């Protein structure tokens, strides 16, 4: 029995989905709407006390942390190998996955939260919002939700996160060893990096483009043609659909001055 609890094909949830699809594994998919706090529901916190996705459950054994999940999946199940066969190659792969976890993902995450959360909670009153935040197990996550909703981050912080994202893309551009990140073999390094880059050629066209990062753009195109990637991206992403609905409502409200979001106390 193999189950994955995730938020759909984006970021760390996409990272955990890709190895399962690349290996052609049968699994039960549980998709949560992260922007409606479903990962903090009591039933899910019983599975992962941190209230975070993704979570893999294999024959009753619970695994968290997407990078760890991916190595476990590759070591446990048959199918296309996603780690180099030699110790040095695996070490080089882990340099990239560590880089994603510690540098690339945090910078991209803060920019994403800044762009999304205020809109996502626009229909909640401050009291309703705080009640939901109080259910979040980790203090760091509670703080991040509050700061994102209140838009407290400075232009200097936003600029620095964009600098880190740009530096991450340039590191990829300069460090790519072949058609895939480590050369001829598609590995978990490609999985981790692609999970961050999904949609970036559109959202961050000034950073990911043929002029400034042609090798990354070509790699991204190869990734998009992989059957496993296509299968993962076909999975619904309720958070994105919910956000798009909220964005349309916010745009309509701006067109009608009398329509004021209930969470106006969050606005800077």
Description:
The chain has 268 residues and is α+β, with helices and mostly antiparallel strands. The protein folds into two domains: 2-82 and 235-242, Glutaredoxin, CATH 3.40.30.10; 87-233, Up-down Bundle (Glutathione S-transferase Yfyf (Class Pi), Chain A, domain 2). It has helices at residues 11-22, 42-45, 66-76, 87-120, 126-133, 139-150, 155-175, 188-197, 200-203, 214-224, 227-233, 238-254, and strands at 2-6, 28-31, 55-58, 61-64. A four-stranded mixed sheet has the order 2-1-3-4, covered by helices on one side. A hairpin with a 2-residue loop joins strand 3 (55-58) and strand 4. Helix 1 packs across helix 11 (227-233) and helix 4 runs parallel beside helix 8 (188-197). It is globular, with a radius of gyration of 19 Å. The termini are far apart.
